[in-house]
Every structure is written in C-alpha cells, then in structure tokens.
Design a protein that fits this description.
single chain, alpha/beta, TIM Barrel, 8-stranded parallel β-sheet, 10 strands, 45% helix, binds zinc ion
Length: 302
C-alpha cells in the first residue's frame, strides 16, 4: 500500500457535529471547544454554518462564535449555503468558506431548495465574491456517493459536478458521503479515476460512519491518493435522513489510525483528548469513537 507522509485532518465537529446533536451548546461552550481544538494543532476547523437559523437553530450563534475565535492561529471555515449566508459570514470575519451543493437534485431541493444546476449558478457568483474578499474556498459536494432519495450517485454525475466546480475556479473539492453508504470499493474506484482526471484539484473526503465503513473508506481514499479528510471530534452528529445513524468519522480514531500507520497528521493527541473529554462532559454520554468505546483512550493517555 502506498501511504503519504502526511494526512490533512479538517475538524468539522463544531459544524457538522453540533448541527445534528439534539442538545444545543451555549456560545461559551462552543468557543471553549474550538479553542481546545485549535491547541491540538489543526490547520483548519469548520467552526459553524451560516445557514438560516430557522433551519439549524443549533448554529444560530454563528456570528458570536466566529468573532470570539477568529484570532486563534488557525484557519476558521464556515459552511456557506447561499448569498445571505455569505454576507453574514464575511461580516463575521471568517477566514474560509465551505461552499455546498448536492450531487443529486432531490437532496439539493430538500436541503438547499435548489437543484444542482441552480446551486452551480449561485456558487459562481459566491466564488468570485469570495476571491475578491480574500477568503479561502473549498467546495463541498453532498451525496457524492449516494443519496437518500435517488440511491447510488454515479461517477458520471460526480464528474459533471466536478467539471462545473473546476470551471468556476474551485481547486479544493470535497466529496461527501452524506448518509454514510459509500464503501471502500466505490471510494477507490471514484477517487482513483477523479484524481487521475483532475490533476489540478485537491480532493477532500467527508465520510459519515453510519454503517461503520468510515475508516475503511479512508484507507481506500488514501490508496487512491486522497490525503485530506474531514472528521468530527467524538464522532459527533447524526444524519437527519437516517434515524439512529452516527455522525462523521471520529477525529480521535482517524488520528490514531494514521499514527499507527506511520502517517503524520500534526495533531497532538494529548491535546486532542482534552477536547474529547470536554465534548464528553458537554453531552454527558459516551462518545461515538472506537477509542472511547473500548476505553483505550485512558490507556493511551497514560
Ligand atoms: Zn456531513
């Protein structure tokens, strides 16, 4: 197996995790979490979303969270779903935007109220604005492997979306397994082909662990040459379309696996565990991470 020297881990727990948790945290709790995560050594953290508070009340405090954390020595990203969200995000002083669209029309319509084509049109405007405003940019393609309404997303469909994003100017493109149904074979097939065809693009992968395939998918992604991964502290989150489903792959497990494989992540594990413990105390429940489940965190920490 070919392995890279370094894996980039992008922490998305404060956004993807918290938006799907039943319990809403206070602004102070979120700020404390982002501070601890920043101390763990992440280069980038997706800290919140500027989606309308009516849709995601948990993240209605996006402005407050960003204004209290933007001085930290990391790049803070926020999910930006539309023009209104963009205006709020820029005003808050965010460093980077994760610009979303869905690979499938029905998910796009239910989630963003837009077909894929309509999203592309809007992203074109937002991308050029973001460039003018000096923001870091990454695109994030939901349902890139499968859709709760349409089933498996074909590679052809993903290619069409990537083509449009590349044409707009995006060079960082995240493919998201929104409902956690990707498998290692599909991941390897899609990513090795896409990596070959779009040499100018840095692909990022975003897996949910709904069926426990998350880390296996990461390995398939690595094998295909993708070295950037989103993950969530404590495996926070859920999926609105799959009751009982888990959240993102857990950052602790991802970092631990990378270390075991001899791949550098530049995350300080001891510091990361402090963030884990904080999250665990917030939610007063065992975290959705193998390390926590098997209690080996305690052993590793000694
Ligand atoms: Zn997600």
């Amino acid at each position: 197996m070919m392995i890279p020297k370094k894996l980039k881990v992008i922490e998305v727990g404060p956004r993807d995790g918290l938006q799907n948790e039943k319990k809403n945290l206070s602004v102070e709790q979120k700020i404390a979490l982002i501070q601890l995560l920043a101390e763990s050594g992440f280069e980038e953290i997706e800290a919140t979303s500027f989606v309308h508070p009516k849709w995601i009340p948990n993240l209605a405090d996006a402005e407050e969270v960003i204004s209290a954390t933007k001085h930290l020595p990391i790049n803070l990203f926020a999910l930006i779903p539309n023009e209104k969200g963009y205006e709020r995000a820029v005003k808050s002083g965010i460093h980077g935007g994760t610009f979303v669209l869905s690979a499938s029309d029905s998910h796009g319509q239910s989630n963003l109220n837009k077909t894929t084509k309509e999203s592309i049109r809007e992203l074109k405007i937002l991308y050029s604005q973001a460039k003018q405003d000096g923001l870091l940019t990454r695109a994030s393609v939901s349902t890139a492997f499968g859709c709760p309404f349409e089933g498996i997303t074909s590679l052809e469909r993903v290619r069409q979306v990537v083509d449009s994003l590349v044409e707009i100017g995006f060079r960082r493109i995240g493919l998201c397994d929104t409902i956690g149904i990707a498998n290692p074979y599909q991941t390897f097939e899609y990513m090795s082909k896409l990596n070959q065809d779009y040499k100018q693009v840095e692909f990022e992968l975003h897996f949910h662990n709904t069926y426990g395939r998350g880390l296996a998918n990461v390995c398939a992604g690595i094998e295909a040459g993708v070295y950037s991964y989103d993950s969530s502290i404590g495996g926070l989150g859920g999926c609105p379309y799959a009751p009982g489903a888990t959240g993102n792959i857990s950052t602790e497990d991802l970092v631990d696996m990378a270390q075991a494989m001899g791949i550098e992540t530049e995350i300080n594990f001891t510091e990361l565990l402090k963030a884990s413990e904080l999250v665990s105390s917030y939610f007063n429940k065992p975290l959705d991470s193998q390390l926590w489940r098997t209690n080996s965190l305690v052993a590793l920490n000694k």
